[in-house]
TrEMBL record:
Domain Immunoglobulin V-set, first and last residues per copy: 17-63
Taxonomic path: Eukaryota, Metazoa, Chordata, Craniata, Vertebrata
Gene3D superfamilies: Immunoglobulins (2.60.40.10)
Coiled coil: none
Keywords for this protein: Disulfide bond, Glycoprotein, Membrane, Repeat, Signal
Pfam families: V-set (PF07686)
UniProt GO BP: heterophilic cell-cell adhesion via plasma membrane cell adhesion molecules; homophilic cell adhesion via plasma membrane adhesion molecules
Superkingdom classification of source: Eukaryota
Protein's UniProt name: NECT4 protein
Compartments where found: Membrane
GO cellular component: adherens junction; membrane
């Protein structure tokens, strides 16, 4: 199968996110993201994007099962994975301050 494509007749899992998250200026906020995998599925990489004006998206962070996390500037030191180890089915991040 081609990465990113689901073969015909196969069902993919479900991504669960909050419709909205309330944050307080100056405090940390958790941005939840959970993938409910189907049998034999494994999450190997998650990419967080920040949507800007006009629908333009910028890469914020990449969580990779083999290579760990990589956070883009200017978010280095401010974006952390909530569960620092283990499977990526729970890919929530903490945005500091």
């Amino acid at each position: 199968a081609v990465p990113g494509w689901v073969p015909a007749g196969c069902q993919a899992g479900v991504v669960e996110v909050e419709r909205s998250v309330t944050a307080v200026l100056g405090q940390d906020v958790v941005l939840p993201c959970r993938y409910r995998a189907q049998e034999q599925e494994q999450v190997v990489q998650v990419t967080w994007l920040k949507r800007g004006p006009g629908g333009h998206s910028a890469k914020l962070a990449v969580l990779d099962l083999q290579h760990g996390e990589h956070v883009q500037e200017p978010y280095a030191g401010r974006v952390l994975r909530r569960a620092p180890e283990g499977a990526l089915e729970d890919s929530a991040i903490v945005l500091r301050n």
